[in-house]
Specification:
Keywords: ATP-binding, Cytoplasm, Fatty acid biosynthesis, Fatty acid metabolism, Lipid biosynthesis, Lipid metabolism, Nucleotide-binding, Transferase
Family: Belongs to the AccA family.
Shape: globular
Number of domains: 2
Order of helices and strands: HHHHEEEHHEHHEHEEHHHEHH
Enzyme class: transferase
Largest sheet: 8 strands, mixed
Helix content: 40-55%
Number of helices: 14
Radius of gyration: 21 Å
CATH architecture of the largest domain: Alpha-Beta Complex
Function: Component of the acetyl coenzyme A carboxylase (ACC) complex. First, biotin carboxylase catalyzes the carboxylation of biotin on its carrier protein (BCCP) and then the CO(2) group is transferred by the carboxyltransferase to acetyl-CoA to form malonyl-CoA.
CATH topology of the largest domain: 2-enoyl-CoA Hydratase, Chain A, domain 1
Low-confidence stretches: none
CATH class of the largest domain: Alpha Beta
Pathway: Lipid metabolism; malonyl-CoA biosynthesis; malonyl-CoA from acetyl-CoA: step 1/1
Number of strands: 8
Strand content: 15-25%
């Protein structure tokens, strides 16, 4: 089945070229005597070159749009390809289940692991069910429950981050949203097993850090990670959401900026055009990066793992 490709505003030159390719193919299908292979090859090469050039020079705001692309692979896609025998667990044993965070146990490279992931959903129904990846307190308390289980049984913890932020609704505040985020962050820091977090789309505020306070923080090439959304920052600073592009630049939310600042540890490459154009390549690269990060902690004691994690976060900002 052919999936209708969704283009971002700055991808217009590529969209026009690829539309011409489709038109030529439609003509050829209608009139089999017409040979279009040479012209199609020329246009495809031109489109590929344009795509590579555009994605080599993305602005922070354009990267924000790529990170939010509706066809970008989500946690369930990474989990399906990287985690074997995945068994999800539900509920926080206090209030209820929150589908914004999917969590469970499985095998990564044959090794048993605990897996946490914020899931936005790919269809309207799924987005509503997963609350667009914005977790309520019970989601973070579920994450704490599973991290404590993983620590008890000596299993590494993998976290896939993709959220605009924790859910800001009244009912979430009534059930202790801030406390739940703090407890989840504390649980990350207390783990005696290695934990690796990877930002696969958006890493928004405390909603992200609650599961991303890890020994190693990885980030896809065109993902974003920040304390607030560019729109939110623009509303606060200039009372104008239209200046989101200015906020995105000022906030240093790109993987390249965050690596330079020592906030993240490694950038995972994406195909030209973003992870939504090269889903298999992005997921495979993420798996390789996670495996390399876990290998760094082989043979270390629980105290050494905790000390290295704490030292990593205490070091942030000291070299600026």
């Amino acid at each position: 089945m052919t999936v209708m490709r969704s283009y971002l505003d700055f991808e217009k030159p590529v969209a026009e070229l690829e539309a011409k390719v489709e038109e030529l193919r439609a003509v050829a299908a209608r009139d089999g005597a017409v040979s279009i292979s040479e012209e199609v090859g020329r246009l495809e090469a031109k489109a590929a070159a344009a795509l590579t050039e555009i994605y080599a020079n993305l602005t922070p705001w354009q990267k924000t749009q790529v990170a939010r692309h509706p066809q970008r692979p989500h946690f369930v896609d990474y989990c399906a390809d990287l985690i074997a025998e995945f068994t999800p667990l539900a509920g926080d044993r206090s209030f209820g289940e929150d589908a914004a965070i999917v969590a469970g146990f499985g095998r990564f490279g044959g090794r048993p692991v605990c897996v946490l992931g914020q899931e936005k959903g790919a269809t309207t129904e799924a987005r509503l069910r997963h609350n667009f990846g914005m977790a309520r307190p019970e989601g973070y308390r579920k994450a704490v429950r599973l991290m404590e289980l993983a620590d008890r049984f000596g299993l590494p913890v993998l976290a896939f981050v993709d959220t605009a932020g924790a859910y800001p609704g009244i009912e979430a505040e009534e059930r202790g949203q801030a406390e739940a985020i703090a407890r989840s962050t504390e649980a990350c820091l207390a783990l005696g097993v290695p934990n690796v977090a990877i930002v696969i789309g958006e890493g928004g505020s405390g909603g992200a850090i609650a599961i991303a306070t890890a020994n190693r923080v990885l980030m896809l090439e065109h993902a974003i990670y920040g304390v607030i959304s560019p729109e939110g920052a623009a509303s606060i600073l200039w009372r104008d959401q239209g200046r989101a592009h200015d906020a995105a630049t000022a906030m240093k939310i790109t993987a390249q900026d965050l690596l330079r600042l020592g906030i993240i540890d490694r950038i995972v490459p994406e195909a030209p055009g973003g992870a939504h154009r090269g889903r298999a390549e992005a997921i495979a690269a993420a798996g390789e990066a996670i495996a390399a990060a876990l290998a760094e902690f082989e043979g270390l004691s629980p105290d050494e793992i905790r000390d290295r994690r704490a030292a990593k976060f205490l070091e942030i900002g000291r070299k600026l």
